[in-house]
Amino acid sequence: xxxxxxSLAAATLVAFAAPAxxxxxxxxxxxRAPQAAVAADQWGALIIPVEARGKLLTDADNADTGGVAFAxxxxxxxxxxxxxxxxxxxxxxRSFIFEAGTLETRCAAQRLPDTNFAxxxxxxxxxxxxxxxxxxxTLIDALGFIIDxxxxxxxxxxxxxxxxxxxxxxWDTHNAEGVRATWAIMPGPAGMLLFACSGxxxxxxxxxMQRYLRIGSGLTTKP
Amino acid sequence: xxxxxxxxxxxxxxxAGIMSAVAAGGLAAGPLQAANGMVPLAGMSMKNYHQVMAxxxxxxxxxxxxxxxxxxxxRNGMGASSGQGSTKVDLTADLVGVDPAMMxxxxxxxxxxxIERLRATGRTVLGWNEISSSEGFRKLDPTPDPFLKKPFAxxxxxxxxxxxxxxxxxxxxxAPLSDRSPFNLGNARALxxxxxxxxxxxxxxxxxxxxxxxxxSGHSTYGGGANVGIQPGLFLVPLFTHCNFFHxxxxxxxxxxxxxxxxxxxxxxxxxxxxxxxxxxxxxxxEWNAYVRSNAWWTEPNMAxxxxxxxxxxxxxxxxxxxxxxxxxxxxxAARATHxxxxxxxxANPAT
Lengths: 223, 352
Prior knowledge:
The complex is a heterodimer of chains A (223) and B (352).
Chain A: E1 56-58, E2 68-71, E3 77-81, E4 85-90, E5 93-100, E6 103-113, H1 122-127, H2 133-142, E7 145-150, E8 153-155, E9 166-175, E10 180-188, E11 191-198, H3 202-212, E12 213-215, H4 217-220
Antiparallel strand pairs in A: 1-2, 2-3, 3-12, 4-5, 5-6, 6-11, 7-9, 8-9, 9-10, 10-11
Chain B: E1 4-7, H1 8-13, H2 25-29, E2 39-40, E3 49-52, E4 62-64, E5 69-82, E6 87-96, H3 100-120, E7 124-125, H4 128-132, H5 135-139, E8 147-149, E9 157-161, H6 186-198, E10 201-216, E11 225-236, E12 242-250, E13 253-261, E14 265-268, E15 271-280, H7 282-293, H8 296-299, E16 312-322, H9 324-348
Parallel strand pairs in B: 2-14, 4-7, 4-10, 5-10, 6-16
Antiparallel strand pairs in B: 1-11, 3-13, 5-6, 5-9, 8-9, 10-11, 10-12, 11-14, 12-13, 15-16
Helix pairs in contact in B: 3-9
């Protein structure tokens, strides 16, 4: 594995209180026009059109609440901020600042091009993903965070039938300043996607990633 | 993990047989997971489901979802005996740390995920104004929320809720997780009426989870031992976890499709299993065994010998104490995986 030292300086990670518990019926109101079916590849990764990449666009699913979504320039991921938010760039790292529920949440993403996995299919990588924690522990250490727990996250995409849900490596961590963050790595044939969130607690961080992060076909296919 | 494992012959005959009450041996040896012998969540596929009549999904692009049900097994138990009841073991386990408000919040999160995925299939998902103004909706007879059910001849007690803004609906054919008889067709007719009037397929998913897998040796007349075991861990309950689809061209009669989970699916841990009480006669049996193993009965013929136990028993109670954040995460993992498969069924039957 390569030695990776991405900086998260731009993503100041802030801890907040517990999430709000308000319930709003997602069906509220009149019947909406049907949205276009989501296109996914054989592993359940989103096929992101080239013209939508690298842009922060209105998210049709969350238009009523000012929701926006950013699709990665290389089509590796799509991240939704359901109540709106801003993006920034700090070196190679993309940051997202938004409210999840009533909590200010900060997430960050970085593409790590890597040919180590280029010889494997996504299926093969997913099958062995639990064995990949150890090599990447050093990366989390290098970022200055202390690992509390390691737990794989299940990322799913709509419309799948036979594809198994994509799983992503996850570390719940804290640093010397008391900042709590959950780090995630999704290895794929094109490289590795590093993603991190900090908000309230590890459960909140994971919920944000599972709900709003979608892997794109740019990562699951060999470049 | 073995909760208790007793040998009747040891109890009644003593001698060389060593009576052993292996109370919660697995707990001491390190927690085994409910995942043993189950399908892991990440490996769940349509192979673990039974599909009936899914082709009705091809009849229209419009879908209405008037209810969503989320259930948790709150109490489970298992008993075993042998030798005409001379050896008895029994355990009861409760889910602790969950209340209806928490369950409704989880149901809301799961329902939101379901709707998000449904919209992503490209189907028209009916808004609440259209659903709630239909005649069929007005005819629905909701079940009181939370709905508690202990099915007949089943040691489980299940609590079922819906999000606070949705009615909790059950129909007769969903027995045993229903509060009405199989002959009560009221809600089925109302759903048919809704389908016919709105020209849509009506979908009602149901997600039910248990916190422990219990095993037991049953009740035998001649068997030599009795044992029960408990494996803590959240898993999706087969049969109770399903998705129903209704379609009717006329209000009087329609067709129903079902996608039903057939296998137990291990989701993970969301708390800790704690033994809260244990009532047994281990000491009495051990005293008898020690006496029989010694030669005191020969060398001290006038000693006051312990009385010979005629019954071996061991009753235990457990609590699965839930961490709310872990429970929410685990349920949402299960919901996402399950919903993804339901959407696959919908996509596999495209409406023309």
